[in-house]
């Protein structure tokens, strides 16, 4: 806007001299503190202790974060009647005088986060009473107790968004937010809340509630039907229970209960729209098998006693799977790091729209990859770090899982997989079989054999992880017809890769992991698309020559036996590589030209540079970054050894010469004796 452009120039000229005086008086950098962009003044981090009073009259937004203000004084905003937004986060405000906002009738958004408003909260509350249009208020990080908060927001009935994270609230009840009927979003994360009683009942418009990082022990009798997002992660919640007698559809779409102490799958509303259900890092298991067990005295009902004075019983039948509520809209279920050892019959099929099923680190012993047991919509299945010994699948029907793209089976105990189980998944793109004792093989069509998996002719497969599988042999053609871009074979120490093992991958492979594979001779030059190569832990004495033909961006050379890098190799690598790891080799301190080449080239990043050591001629380790060039300058080099001997001789001769001259000059009396001694023997003449 031209008007503002001209205005800001005028303003700059008018304000600069004055501010210069101010700033030089306080010894601060002499720059014009505020930048003006249209109706916004940006005065963050300017060491200001008051609100600048020379901003344009029409200003609508002022940012004053990270300054040194202690107080907002009456009248400091009176020049700016059009103010809609004021941000004074990260100052040292202890209070705000009572009439500060009385001339800011349009103020909608006020950010006072990270100040010390607990000191003068009563006065601050009074100043808020004129903010009849305030919609968004941030009071995070002000050391506020629940009582202070209830005074502060007492009359802010227009408020729609309220941030109160990082305060000291312990308990919320009906009185805390009494007048906030319009509230849509409330964030009280990182307080010390251990109890909530009726605090939200009147907030009929509340859609987003963040209770994360508090101390809540349970969430029972959940009835907030209008809520879209509930985040109660990082508490101590053992139970999540909805009032299941409510007949309404809950609007809830996202429920985050991760990092709690849940013992049972949460009891969700009977009717709901939950799409994202996050339950990772709890203690969830299923116990239905106890339900019919009449021999033991297992209780089948649990009673919860309200923590308030009025005790009311909430009774749940914990073994009854129907009481888990409606799961039919769930798209993402994250149950990572729980205690799931099986799923009740029909449990997963209740989720016909499930795309992401994350079950990492549970106790599953078997899983069934069949359209009868998994929804055909499934896109990602992560069952890594379980106790799987068995993968059930029927060759014929597995192809119906045609959306399955990511399958992570790493770190299990899988051994005898049906050999063609993966070739039948039509859209599989990433397969992680690491840390299982699986073997790979190439079988002619229509033969099947268990004991090895077939990975050829999988046109969709791009990324394959086979590290730590104790693979010894990769026969030729194993990857034929499978356009892998990413192949991880590391930690198969007996592999000893042969040239023909990677047949068919020359035109696609971009990442190859061969760390700790006993790698010796391998010609990398056919793999012209390789961008990233890991050959760490292979006892290599030098960098394979064939790498020089490649356009690598990342190279991992750690823990080999390299003593140096030839200078022409070093300059080639330095030109192409962006990232390199080289720690754990036996570099010679006197052959560090490669290091200087790498240092000169700014594009190459030696990630572990500070840890790289070299050995000097006495087999002492030096960090190469600390190595003083003078210390070494050619030690160990044969040519220079000759020079050293020469130098030594010269010095010795000089010293001898000097001694002789010294003796001759200063100790003349010694001479005759020496001569006498030498002449002691009677001369023959
Ligand atoms: C809120 O409004 C009531 C009634 O108008 C008044 O008595 C009270 O003092 C106000 N509270 C604050 C903190 O201004
Ligand atoms: C819940 O809150 C935590 C802490 O702020 C955050 O890390 C997490 O992403 C939130 N969850 C969702 C689903 O937004
Ligand atoms: C659950 O909701 C029903 C229906 O609104 C109500 O009658 C009942 O009291 C609620 N249960 C509890 C424990 O509040
Ligand atoms: C739920 O409400 C619908 C209509 O509002 C009604 O038809 C149905 O009978 C109710 N169900 C229960 C269990 O109250
Ligand atoms: C428990 O018993 C019921 C009826 O007797 C039966 O339908 C159900 O399959 C049994 N559940 C288990 C886990 O054995
Ligand atoms: C079950 O409880 C009853 C009474 O409390 C007791 O007599 C019985 O021994 C218990 N049975 C088992 C199997 O623990
Ligand atoms: C407890 O219940 C009584 C009546 O049943 C009610 O008057 C009282 O307000 C309740 N107390 C609390 C803290 O809810
Ligand atoms: C809770 O339920 C138990 C068993 O059903 C009953 O004995 C007890 O009186 C109930 N307590 C209250 C406060 O309703
Ligand atoms: C496959 O999964 C994706 C989620 O990644 C989803 O958007 C898509 O609708 C699914 N396709 C089918 C056919 O289910
Ligand atoms: C297979 O995956 C591709 C993308 O990876 C996607 O476009 C396609 O829709 C998927 N096929 C099916 C049947 O879901
Ligand atoms: C598979 O899971 C493991 C362990 O949970 C994880 O480290 C790995 O990155 C995952 N693989 C892929 C391809 O995401
Ligand atoms: C094996 O099957 C693949 C595709 O499934 C086909 O391209 C190939 O020609 C077949 N090979 C033989 C020997 O039949």
TrEMBL record:
It comes from the Eukaryota. InterPro entries: Dev_Immune_Receptor, Leu-rich_rpt, Leu-rich_rpt_typical-subtyp, LRR_dom_sf. The chain crosses the membrane at residues 641-664. One of its GO terms (cellular component) is extracellular space. The keyword Lyase does not apply. Keywords: Leucine-rich repeat, Membrane, Repeat, Signal, Transmembrane, Transmembrane helix. Residues 1-27 form the signal peptide. SMART domains: LRR_BAC, LRR_SD22, LRR_TYP. This is Negative regulator of reactive oxygen species. It comes from Culter alburnus (Topmouth culter).
């Amino acid at each position: 806007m031209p008007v503002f452009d001209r205005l800001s120039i005028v303003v700059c000229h008018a304000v600069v001299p004055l501010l210069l005086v101010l700033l030089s008086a306080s010894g601060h950098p002499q720059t014009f503190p505020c930048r003006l962009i249209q109706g916004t003044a940006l005065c963050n981090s300017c060491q200001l202790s008051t609100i600048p009073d020379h901003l344009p009259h029409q200003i609508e937004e002022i940012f004053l974060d990270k300054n040194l203000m202690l107080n907002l004084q009456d009248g400091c905003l009176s020049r700016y009647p059009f103010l809609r937004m004021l941000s004074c986060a990260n100052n040292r405000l202890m209070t705000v005088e009572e009439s500060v906002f009385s001339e800011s009738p349009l103020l909608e958004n006020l950010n006072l986060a990270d100040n010390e408003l607990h000191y003068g909260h009563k006065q601050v509350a009074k100043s808020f009473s004129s903010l009849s249009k305030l919609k968004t208020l941030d009071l995070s990080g002000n050391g506020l107790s629940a009582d202070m908060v209830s005074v502060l927001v007492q009359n802010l009935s227009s408020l729609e968004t309220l941030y109160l994270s990082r305060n000291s609230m312990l308990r919320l009840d009906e009185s805390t937010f009494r007048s906030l009927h319009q509230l849509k979003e409330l964030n009280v994360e990182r307080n010390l809340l251990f109890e909530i009683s009726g605090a939200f009942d009147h907030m009929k418009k509340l859609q987003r509630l963040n209770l994360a990082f508090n101390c809540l022990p349970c969430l029972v009798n959940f009835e907030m039907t209008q809520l879209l997002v509930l985040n109660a992660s990082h508490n101590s919640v053992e139970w999540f229970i909805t009032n299941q007698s409510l007949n309404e559809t809950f609007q809830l779409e996202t429920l985050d209960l991760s990092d709690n102490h849940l013992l049972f799958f949460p009891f969700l509303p009977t009717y709901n729209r939950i799409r994202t259900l996050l339950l990772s890092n709890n203690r969830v298991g299923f116990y239905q098998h106890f339900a019919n067990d009449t021999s033991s005295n297992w209780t089948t009902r649990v009673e919860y006693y309200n923590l308030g004075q009025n005790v009311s019983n909430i009774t749940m039948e914990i073994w009854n799977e129907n009481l888990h509520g409606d799961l039919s809209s769930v798209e993402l279920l994250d149950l990572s790091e729980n205690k799931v050892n099986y799923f009740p019959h029909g449990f997963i099929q209740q989720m016909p729209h499930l795309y992401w099923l994350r079950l990492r680190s549970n106790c599953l012993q078997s899983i069934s990859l069949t359209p009868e047991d998994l929804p055909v919509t499934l896109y990602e299945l992560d069952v890594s770090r379980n106790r799987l010994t068995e993968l059930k699948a029927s060759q014929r029907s597995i192809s119906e899982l045609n959306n399955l793209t990511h399958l992570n089976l790493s770190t299990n105990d899988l051994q005898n997989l049906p050999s063609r189980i993966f070739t039948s998944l039509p859209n599989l793109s990433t397969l992680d079989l690491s840390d299982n004792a699986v073997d790979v093989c190439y079988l002619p069509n229509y033969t099947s054999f268990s004991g090895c998996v077939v990975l050829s002719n999988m046109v969709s497969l791009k990324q394959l992880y086979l590290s730590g599988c104790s693979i010894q042999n990769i026969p030729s053609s194993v990857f034929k017809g499978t356009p892998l871009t990413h192949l991880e074979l590391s930690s198969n120490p007996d592999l000893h890769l042969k040239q023909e093992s990677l047949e068919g991958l020359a035109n696609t492979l971009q990442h190859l992991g061969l760390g700790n594979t006993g790698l010796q001779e391998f010609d990398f030059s056919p793999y012209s698309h390789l961008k990233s190569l890991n050959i760490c832990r292979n006892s290599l004495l030098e960098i394979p020559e064939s790498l020089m033909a490649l356009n690598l961006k990342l190279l991992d050379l750690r823990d080999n036996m390299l003593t140096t890098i030839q200078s022409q190799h070093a300059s080639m690598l330095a030109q192409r590589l962006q990232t390199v790891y080289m720690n754990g080799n036996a570099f010679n301190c006197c052959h560090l030209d490669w290091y200087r080449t790498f240092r000169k080239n700014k594009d190459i990043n030696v990630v572990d540079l500070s840890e790289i050591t070299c050995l000097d001629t006495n087999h002492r380790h030096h960090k190469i970054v600390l190595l003083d060039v003078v210390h070494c300058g050619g030690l160990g080099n044969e040519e220079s050894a000759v020079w050293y001997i020469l130098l030594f001789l010269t010095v010795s001769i000089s010293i001898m010469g000097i001694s002789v001259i010294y003796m001759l000059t200063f100790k003349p009396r010694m001479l005759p004796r020496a001569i006498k001694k030498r002449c002691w023997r009677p001369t023959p003449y």
